[in-house]
Amino acid sequence: MKRADRLYALMQRLRDGRVHTAEALAQDLGVSVRTIYRDMDTLAASGVPVEGARGLGYAARATTTLPPLNLTETELEVLHLGLAAVGAGGIPDLAAAAESLSAKIDAVLPEDSGMAAGRFGFATYPFAAAALGFRHMPAIRSAIRARQKLRLTFADAAAQDVRPLHLDYWGRIWTCVVWSETTQTFETFRIDRIDTLTILPGLFVDEPGKTLKDWHALDQER
């Protein structure tokens, strides 16, 4: 049983209001008592009001719980957009709630999701800085789909004309992989560092050495 499924099964058992021993839960789910202890810590950290202690048993009297959600990388990105916007809004109680929500999501992300540890967490990277890049995301996404060249200017670097190829998400930081017509090489820019973005006339077509596939090949060689 996957960890996310096991946590959901535990929540379902605990919601009946009765006390369940770790030994009984472990037997029902086919795992060790130590695993149940860890899962109880995870549920508590994710906001489920677990009552009890090791050796005594557990119960939960939750006011609101949600079933497991299957989220795509894009949907997780949307969550980050919302959390970042709230965190940068300057309202202390909402910022605290955003931090709490992020911690709850961290606690229940599947162990086998392929994400680096702590990737989703409410990182120390400033929300306000990350939010600067959000304004450019629709235009970059549209340009990638349409194969539209862009001119990017930066406060601390020279402007570049680029072919946008791919957006990557690193938890609070979005980067864009491009083929730069200016430097004639692949570049990766943090979109929060982009000052202005201009759509250039004309579309680009795939050319040998300038495609996302070529970039992946170079990246694997490094």
Number of strands: 7
How many H/I helical runs?
8
Mean pLDDT: 78
Give the CATH topology of the largest domain.
SH3 type barrels
Separation, N- and C-terminal Cα atoms: 37 Å
Structural class: alpha+beta
| Oligomeric state | single chain
Strand content is 15-25%
* Helix-strand string: HHHEEHHHHEEEEEH
Q: How many distinct folded domains? A: 3
Task: Just give the CATH class of the largest domain.
Answer: Mainly Beta
Strand order of the largest sheet: 6-5-4-3-7
Radius of gyration: 23 Å
- Residue share in helices? 40-55%
Envelope shape: elongated
Q: What report would you give on this structure?
A:
- This protein is 42% helix and 22% strand.
- It is an alpha+beta fold.
- The protein folds into three domains: 3-60, Arc Repressor Mutant, subunit A; 73-123; 133-221, SH3 type barrels (Roll).
- The longest helix has 17 residues, at 92-108.
- It is elongated.
- The model is unreliable at 111-119 (pLDDT under 50).
